[in-house]
Amino acid sequence: MISKILIISTNREFAPQPVAPIGAAWVAESLTQAGFRVRLVDLSFEKDPAGRVASEIRQFQPDGVGLSVRNVDNGDFLSPRSFLPALKEITDCVKQNTSARIVLGGSGVSVMPLQILNYLELDYAIMGEGEETSVLFFRAKTDDEACRAPGVVCRKQAEPGYERTSWLSNPDLVRPRLHRWVDVRRYLRFEPVLPVQGKRGCANRCIYCTYNRIEGRVYRLREPALVAEEISSTVMNTSARTFEFVDSIFNQPEGYMEALLEEIIRWRLKVRFHVASISPKGLTKEQVKLMERAGVTAVGITPEAASDTTLGSLRKGFGQDDVYHAADLLAGSNIKALWCFLLGGPEEDKRSIAETMKFINTKIPDKDKAFITIGVRVYPHTGMHDLAVRESVVDPYDNLLMPTFYFTPNMSPNEARDTLVSGLGSIGKTIFLSDTNFSSLGILRLAGTALRLPSPFWRYAGYMNMMISGNRVIRRNWG
Ligand code: SF4
Predict the structure, then answer these.
(1) Which of 103, 108, 137, 223 has its CA 20 to 30 A from that of 334?
(2) 3-class DSSP state for residue 82?
């Protein structure tokens, strides 16, 4: 019978910032509630991750091991880097040191569980949300029974179409209590902000997105009072005073954001909030005012383009007018906005890039920034994959395990770069994904926290751009 479980959070990526493993904490809490003895090891800051894993296994002697995988690569077309070889060193180390039942989970695994299991030579993965499935998996008396738990993908029994996903029916069954499982002080040193999640799921169907395999298309909403209580408890137990909502799209579905923020206002929490992602679609003046009233000081907004052509091809579900309307609303507020764009997708051409550049030049005020990703990572089971195969950009037999990208056939990457250079009024207010690999960024973050500079730290991107000016990706060859 399995009684002791070691959860290993394997993410070690620091670009653009270290991310506290809220999903692994959620699963660890769930397993504890179910009666298991659980230890969580966070490898984020470990200099010798395999050594730490071996030592934890020696000390704790687990009968079950769960490894969480956030991403399989950095998603960067211009400087691609797979995380899988480093992950294999860790999973090989686990296999060498224990005969415990091992399972993989996390967002990276949910996207392509079988490919990853084959690469790592492991047998089990959880697809989707792990809180309930992990309990059933580790409670199972035999490996065969473990395989039958909903959401478990078993490599030895796998056939095409075998993968199945599990969703947590009620996200309030378990509270993550991140500070109980993770040394949050280490994350707070890089930026004094902790994650919080109000809901699961996203009903949109953007062509490139894998979210439907990670959290599903059906929204499951947390009770606002429980979210407020979680924030209050974190404030009492840590030095965090700023929280970031990491929900898929914060202002969807209709009405939830309002209910959540009104509840937070009632709690008089004396904290500030960032929001990882809002959509321009349906954004209203009242919503922006409510966000301000509740203490939201920064949002990421994810139109990905400001051209109807590109928005249509990315299946964003809104148009250029919505993007301009949202810009007017946010420009008239005190909320800082990070505008996210994805260039090089289907049907992108010089004209559509010029439209997006015009938007950046004219509608993004000095208080805000534009975050630009070049090229689209192609994942299995997405509309992007189907299109990439149809256009012969991707071989139909490519398992997509290693970084694979789509870039519009309408122009070469270098032509896109030249269009950007000539179209952008100022590259000072843009942040390119590839520039966030800059090795001194971590030191700048630590300095920013030590000096108690107000977050979000992306607001200081202009300084970073000055420091790396000659090395910025915009000055390099894109091929
Ligand atoms: S809105 Fe965001 S999370 Fe939802 S499908 Fe589109 S990209 Fe994915």
Answers:
(1) 223
(2) strand
Cβ of 211 less than 6 Å from ligand 1: yes
Atom of ligand 1 nearest to the CA of 304: 7
Q: 306 and 452 share a domain?
A: yes
Residue range 242-257, pLDDT digits in tens: 999 999 999 999 999 9
Give the nearest ligand 1 atom to 248 CA: 3
CATH code of the domain covering residue 15: 3.40.50.280
The pLDDT tens digits for 187-231 are 999 999 999 999 999 999 999 999 988 999 999 999 999 999 999
Are 8 and 98 found together in one domain?
Answer: yes
Q: Which of 209, 275, 283, 382 to mutate to test the pocket of ligand 1 (most atoms within 8 A of CB)?
A: 209
More confident residue, 435 or 84: 84
- Give the closest residue to 152 by CA, choosing from 171, 134, 169, 173: 134
Range of the domain at 21: 4-157
- The domain that holds 214 is classified in CATH as 3.80.30.20
Ligand 1 atom, smallest distance to 205 CA: 5
Bridge pairing between strands 199-200 and 124-126: unpaired
